[in-house]
Design goal:
mainly alpha; 95 residues; 434 Repressor (Amino-terminal Domain); 0% strand
């Protein structure tokens, strides 16, 4: 069964991605994930984080740029590699 097409996170957010909040709740969840991911990566290289997570570095770059929706396996691998909680929807649900 083919996937349902949907806009990319970057398409649902104002410029510059990911620095400006989005009114679209799903896009906002993705934006907040990217902000946490960017913060947790810190001074490390994307390649080193991707390698530790068992991911292709382009996957991580595409997520950071809002050009991909991360799947649960990607989120889990990044959380384990960074020893950090990256995904939550609490702030979006509470609004």
């Amino acid at each position: 069964m083919p996937r349902t097409e949907r806009a990319l996170p970057v398409d649902g957010a104002p410029d510059p991605w990911p620095d400006v909040p989005s009114e679209d709740r799903l896009t906002e969840i993705a934006r907040q994930f990217v902000l946490r991911l960017r913060d947790e990566i810190g001074d490390r290289s994307v390649r080193s984080v991707a390698a530790e997570a068992g991911l292709n570095h382009m996957t991580v770059l595409n997520v950071l740029a809002g050009r991909a929706w991360p799947d649960l396996a990607t989120i889990g691998r990044l959380e384990l590699a960074l020893n950090a909680d990256l995904y939550t929807s609490h702030s979006v649900r509470d609004n």
